[in-house]
Amino acid sequence: MELGNHTEVLEFILLGLSEVEELQPLFLGLFLAMYLVTFIGNLLIILATITSSHLHTPMYFFLANFSFVDICFTSTTIPKMLLNMQTHNKTITYQGCLTQMYFFILFAELDIFFLSIMAYDQFVAICHPLHYTVIMNPRLCVLLLLLSWILSVLDSLLRGLLVLRLSFCTNLEIPHFFCEINQVIQLACSDNLLNIIEMYFATVVMGIIPLTGIIFSYSRIVSSIRRITSAREKYKAFSTCGSHLSVVSLFYSTGLGVYFSSSTTQNSRESAVASVIYTTVTPMLNPFIYGLRNKDIRGALKGLVGIVTLND
Questions:
Q1: 119 close to 144: Cβ distance less than 8 angstroms
Q2: Contact partners, residue 8, CB within 8 Å, separation at least 6
Q3: pLDDT tens digits, residue range 79-119?
């Protein structure tokens, strides 16, 4: 296909998870239920953290922000997919696709940063408990929050601008349920080498480096826990870390796997299915992993329910 023979892009076609029409009502109901659980569950954690004064600590400060980002993260993809299923229309406008890509990258990178910060918070709490309040002071917490937002906004903006320079021809079918940037780059009929280089560079900087920080933090945490003599204290420490590690494992194992595989293969229907794990399932499980297993969160939620009942 000649590079000069292209027309102005008006819309892309999102092929979704399956082309079998009989499965669409099932997917519609399933993803609607998952989205509602994600939205309500994470919203409850945010409200519980705000209304309960004893949860005004660095750990729950970042957990509330993490829950907010998860709501935004799923809201960039699932509502559009549900709308397409309901209307039997698989198209998304060029402007809508670019907007979806920008916010998806933004909130995905914020998720990564918050997972790293929460790992560091647990490292300080377990390895340096006597200096925890000094190290994790409000100024540092706000600084880490702002730094995460600034880096994520700048990187997602850069990647969006690099996509704007690409030309697209006639093959505008995306084998995914949202505008995944790697798949959009592969549809370009102009030179996309710069986009691919930036993609791998951003993956290392925004993905691998934070993951390395998480692994380092937990290696120190495990080393500290092994020196604890009380079996009860060991179990308590491992239980606290287990919630965070399960989320990290789900998010990174599926996210990085899909990211690298989709950039090297054209047949990505399998990667689209795997993307459901880190784009939908993981944010849905976070309220259960962090909330229901945490007695402080459970107590705050009971208090929140009590307040709502009294107001009624």
A1: no
A2: none
A3: 999 999 888 888 999 999 999 999 999 999 999 999 999 99
